[in-house]
Amino acid sequence: MDKDEPIRLYDMTDYYIGLGLALSSSGFIGASFIIKKKALVQISLGSGRRAANGGYGYLSNWLWWFGLSMMGFGEVFNFAAYAFAPASVVTPLGALSVIVAAILSSKYLNEQLNLLAKIGCFMCIIGSTVMVIHSPKEETVDSLEDLLQKLTEPGFIIYTSIMLIIIFSIFFYFGPRYGSSNVIVYVIMCSTSGSLTVMWCKGLGLAIRETIAGTSEFTNWLTYMFIVLLITFVCIQMNYLNKALDTFNTSVVTPVYYVMFTTLVITASAILFKEWEHLQLNDIIGIICGFLITVTAIFMLNTFRDVDMSRSHFAWRTRQPITRKSTVEENAQTSALIKNNTQYGTRNV
């Protein structure tokens, strides 16, 4: 795209289609977390070898396949969303999958969802909305030729190299040694591969859109490279996500995965597509604030999930000043009695 050429905005119809697909994707993916976790719990209670220990017993479990199909629908919708809207819009909406997973886990996995967790869910919605409002609306890549040029720029090559080093390090060293004791290991593996998966999704979606528009891109070698890379990195994500879900609590895996995945996708998108170049300062601040609100909400959801707090506790705390006043008076009377008794005892001595 020439510098003198005006910035081409996304067609708003396509933009809203992308938002709708992203919302649907969050619903399917959030439900898939719970269904797959339920299947893995059934396997762990049986005689099958757990996924965390390298077992693949979940492949014979129909419930796990149902959860996988739900995730498949979610990923298809998510893939389509990237073809219609920028990655910095689609990715933050993944926070809604955290809300879906939290609500369903409290119902079907007997995991507590207290008042603070519900506030966290509400804050997730607010944070995601703020990010979407301030997200870039400019389309920076409109052909595979432009995309190929951006893929070969030094910034994205350095980013991809760092991600591949992390992936191979976890696969050969950190995963076997620390994966079963530290949730960060498996989640980093999912997030790094996921951030690259989004880039391949965006490229393949662009190829499909150009083909539908009349310019066949399935004669272009770049399209098939995107397909191979997409399948490879999705398989990596699925394998390590299963290990994380089987080893750690869903309320831990889901929010940590969202925070790391979103951060890396926004970083990769900013490097590759340069979506932030034409943003004004207030939009940049809005995106950062929205992301921090979402991260804070997810932290609340994770940290205070098991705290025993409900609306009845909150109502009790709002009435505390009255109780405290009477308590202070009782303490004052008690102190006076102790003082008198002390003085009386001193005189006797």
UniProtKB/TrEMBL annotation:
* SUPFAM superfamilies reported for this sequence: Multidrug resistance efflux transporter EmrE
By what name is this protein known? Magnesium transporter NIPA2
> What is the scientific name of the source organism?
Acyrthosiphon pisum
Q: Where in the cell is it found?
A: Membrane
> Which parts of the chain span the membrane according to its record?
15-35, 56-73, 79-103, 115-136, 156-176, 183-201, 221-240, 252-272, 284-304
Which PANTHER family does the UniProt record give?
PTHR12570, SPICHTHYIN, ISOFORM B
Q: How does this protein lie in the membrane?
A: Multi-pass membrane protein
* Gene3D superfamilies (alphabetical): 1.10.3730.20
Q: Which GO terms describe its cellular component?
A: membrane
